């Protein structure tokens, strides 16, 4: 990251000696879409923006145009250009590509110059602006689990080809067995392990904690806590680092929510707190409330209680943002350490929302950990959903709708009385898109119709697919 504030006027000096710049925006699936441009081109558009084909919002993660054309990019508007404006504050250099300069861009409508409704960075900014208008801000952290595989011949097969050409259950994991928090497993692949850590520092997405998780070849990284918009950028770029560093070591990561049947899935937990201009945590209560409705919220401020209520009320309607893919719901099943109901609790790792507060944490570290998202989720959308739903609770002064999850209660058990979250992307999308949903209230119709349409596309493709399970079960017997 830049150590000084980057301005248009300072760019010629900062980029002295560089011949080109790499630019990238983020699509609805959280994928980076970008290009290399000459330095002269970049300097000419750095302040005003440049044309970028809108088709990145008109096709899916495999560049197939949506079966039902959506509003932002379609044949009727000629797949016209959007305006991509470089965010100079996002300046980095890519250490594995000869330190070439790198900037993220945000997408704007060419007619109105307003953020494109489906632009992930723009969606989060709109939600954050609601807090800024009141003099508040938000801090966030991200934790990602992912499974790793060993490509036996990286020179002959790209990571994508390797993953797609091998049967999933036969992919060779980087390490075998279940060994969370192992000190010895990373030593087996220490060059890759430390290269990821060091490269994240150089690329401005520093890792706070980095360890093995329970599962063959599964690792978890906790990124350093920071301002929420910058945190979302760093969370997205972390995946870019892991994939890029892995190429040189023959290590292929998978951020799928559930890469292999019968094993725990890959989570993408998000932490969030609200702060004032001075950085004071506004979720913490000044004095413990001895008369609190539940002991779990004795140290939580009134704002924090309303924010929690908003999260709980909005969670079922926001599910496609937290679990955006068909495979996401294979992780969200009972008995696999993944939340399946609307639930919360103080230091409760089985609940959908874990409250972290005194006495186990300092007051200044009071925050919510939303444990529903998987590693496959788009961090900008996840943080926008959390911020939007929570702030709606603050504005409406909502009351917490359900008691905390009792310790020892398993998700989805007879003693867990919370509302069951969607069991499929189809069910989640229908609720997300329905008239009067919390998502429509918070994000508006334009975004909900567009993103919901992209999820309907995923559902349709899956419903038309003939899976290995179907072939194995029926090809001989029916």
TrEMBL record:
Superkingdom: Eukaryota
Entries under Pfam families matching the protein: Gln-synt_C (PF00120)
Keyword list, A-Z: ATP-binding, Ligase, Nucleotide-binding
SUPFAM superfamilies reported for this sequence: Glutamine synthetase, N-terminal domain, Glutamine synthetase/guanido kinase
Record bears the keyword Glycosyltransferase: no
GO biological process: biogenic amine metabolic process; glutamine biosynthetic process
Molecular function (Gene Ontology), one example: ATP binding
Domain GS catalytic stretches: 120-478
Gene3D superfamilies, A to Z: Glutamine synthetase, N-terminal domain, Glutamine synthetase/guanido kinase, catalytic domain
Family stated for the protein in its record: Belongs to the glutamine synthetase family.
Name of the molecule in the record: Glutamine synthetase
């Amino acid at each position: 990251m830049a150590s000084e504030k980057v301005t248009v006027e300072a760019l010629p000096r900062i980029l002295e000696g560089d011949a080109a710049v790499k630019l990238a925006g983020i699509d609805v699936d959280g994928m980076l879409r970008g290009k290399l441009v000459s330095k002269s081109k970049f300097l000419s558009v750095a302040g005003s923006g440049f044309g970028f084909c809108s088709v990145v919002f008109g096709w899916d993660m495999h560049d197939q145009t949506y079966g039902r054309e959506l509003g932002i990019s379609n044949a009727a508007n000629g797949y016209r250009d959007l305006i991509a404006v470089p965010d100079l504050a996002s300046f980095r250099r890519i250490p594995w590509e000869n330190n070439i300069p790198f900037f993220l861009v945000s997408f704007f409508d060419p007619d109105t110059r307003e953020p494109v409704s489906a632009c992930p960075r723009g969606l989060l900014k709109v939600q954050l602006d609601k807090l800024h208008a009141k003099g508040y801000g938000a801090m966030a952290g991200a934790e990602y689990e992912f499974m790793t595989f060993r490509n036996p011949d990286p020179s002959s097969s790209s990571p994508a080809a390797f993953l797609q050409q091998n049967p999933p259950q036969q992919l060779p994991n980087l390490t075998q067995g279940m060994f969370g928090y192992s000190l010895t497993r990373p030593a087996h692949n220490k060059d890759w392990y430390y290269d990821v850590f060091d490269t994240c520092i150089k690329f401005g997405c520093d890792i706070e904690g980095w360890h093995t998780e329970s599962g063959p070849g599964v690792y978890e990284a906790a990124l350093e806590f920071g301002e929420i918009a910058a945190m979302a950028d760093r969370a997205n770029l972390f995946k870019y680092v892991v994939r890029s560093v892995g190429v040189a070591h023959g290590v292929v990561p998978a951020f799928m929510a559930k890469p292999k049947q019968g094993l725990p899935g890959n989570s993408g937990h998000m932490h969030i707190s609200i702060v004032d201009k001075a950085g004071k945590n506004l979720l913490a209560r000044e004095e413990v409330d001895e008369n609190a409705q539940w002991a779990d919220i004795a140290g939580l401020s009134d704002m924090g209680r309303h924010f929690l209520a908003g999260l709980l009320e909005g969670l079922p309607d926001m599910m496609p943002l937290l679990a955006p893919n068909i495979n996401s719901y294979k992780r969200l099943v009972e008995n696999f350490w993944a939340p399946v109901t609307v639930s919360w609790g103080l230091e409760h790792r089985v609940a959908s929302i874990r409250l972290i507060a005194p006495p186990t944490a300092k007051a200044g570290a009071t925050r919510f950990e939303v444990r529903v998202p998987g590693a496959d989720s788009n961090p900008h959308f996840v943080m926008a959903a959390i911020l939007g739903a929570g702030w709606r609770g603050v504005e409406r002064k909502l009351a917490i709708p359900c008691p905390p999850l009792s310790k020892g209660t398993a998700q989805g058990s007879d003693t867990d009385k919370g509302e069951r979250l969607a069991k499929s992307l189809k069910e989640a999308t229908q609720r997300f898109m329905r008239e009067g949903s919390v998502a429509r209230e918070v994000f508006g119709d334009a975004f909900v119709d567009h993103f919901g349409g992209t999820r309907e596309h995923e559902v349709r493709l899956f419903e038309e697919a003939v899976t290995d399970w179907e072939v194995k079960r029926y090809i001989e017997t029916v």
